[in-house]
Amino acid sequence: MSQDTDPQTIEVVDVGDRFEARTPDGVVAGFAEYVREPGRVVFTHTEVDPAFEGRGVGSALAAGALDQVRASGERVVPLCPFIKAYIARHPDDQELTTR
Q1: Which CATH number describes the domain made up of 8-96?
Q2: If residue 18 lies in a helix (H) or strand (E), which one and from where to where?
Q3: CA pair distance 99, 90, nearest whole angstrom
Q4: Contacts of 78 (CB under 8 A, 6+ apart)
């Protein structure tokens, strides 16, 4: 991966038990694990490869994952501290959380 990875080029892919943040050359730069329950997605753990830290990959991953949950009509349970903090900083995503 080059040192100039742009978070805009990160693709977020749902692989069934986690969302993966992939670079244009297919490298998995990070992931957000989840458990899907009826009507909701429970985020349990998020991790960014140390080689990609500080480049916005985690935020791109969170945004992409939450956009896909929103599109599915499901709600979010943010048990993962990273996803929880991301939602707290982005008011437009707060409507996704379950009460």
Answers
A1: 3.40.630.30
A2: strand 18-22
A3: 17
A4: 43, 84, 87, 97
* pTM score, whole prediction: 0.90
Please give the pLDDT value at position 9.
87
How many of the other CB atoms lie within 10 Å of CB of 28?
14
| Rounded-to-integer distance, Cα 85 and Cα 78, Å | 9
Closest listed residue to residue 10, CA positions, set 70, 69, 52, 44: 52
The pLDDT tens digits for 15-29 are 999 999 999 999 999
Residue 41 pairs in a beta bridge with 36, 76
Please say whether the dihedral angle defined by the alpha carbons of residues 10, 8, 45 and 53, taken in this order, is positive or negative: positive
Per DSSP, 19 falls in state: E
**Which DSSP string do the residues of 27-78 spell out, in sequence order?**
-EEEEEEEEEETTEEEEEEEEE-GGGTTTTHHHHHHHHHHHHHHHHT-EEEE
